[in-house]
């Protein structure tokens, strides 16, 4: 099954949309220019098998592997890709990460990026 075919629960999507709105508000308040392409980091948490499956597929899914760390038997996976923070690109980010969460049976733990201000 292609990741594009993985269903996303409406309530899960709504929760991430609310969370993203807070992050986007903080970015815009700091002077961020949404259409500037920059590194966006995403995080997943899970058990060894599922995290390692996602890690193994990350490049083919369009991500760079940054780190995998272990804390008391729980693995944390950090991935990155280049994108803007326009509403369309953030909608794609939500779709991609929530489908990865559902398909790989890991927990999507959010995203972050830097503020990219306009050159004065």
What does this structure look like?
The protein starts with 9 loop residues before the first helix and ends in a 7-residue tail after the last strand. It contains three helices and four strands. By secondary structure, the chain is an alpha+beta fold. It has a single domain, classed as Alpha-Beta Plaits. Helix 1 (10-29) crosses helix 3. The model has no long low-confidence stretch (mean pLDDT 94). Strand 2 (64-71) and strand 3 (74-83) form a beta hairpin. The protein is globular. A four-stranded antiparallel beta sheet has the order 2-3-1-4. The protein has helices at 10-29, 48-57, 87-104; strands at 38-46, 64-71, 74-83, 107-113.
Percent of residues in beta strands:
25-35%
Write down how many β-strands occur, each being a DSSP E stretch of 2 or more residues: 4
How many domains, as an integer?
1
Proper CATH architecture: 2-Layer Sandwich
CATH class: Alpha Beta
Bin the helical content.
40-55%
Could you say what the CATH topology is called? Alpha-Beta Plaits
Q: If helices are DSSP runs of H or I spanning 4 or more residues, what is the number of helices?
A: 3
What key phrases describe this protein's structure?
120 residues, four-stranded antiparallel sheet, 4 strands, single chain, 28% strand, 3 helices, alpha+beta, Alpha-Beta Plaits
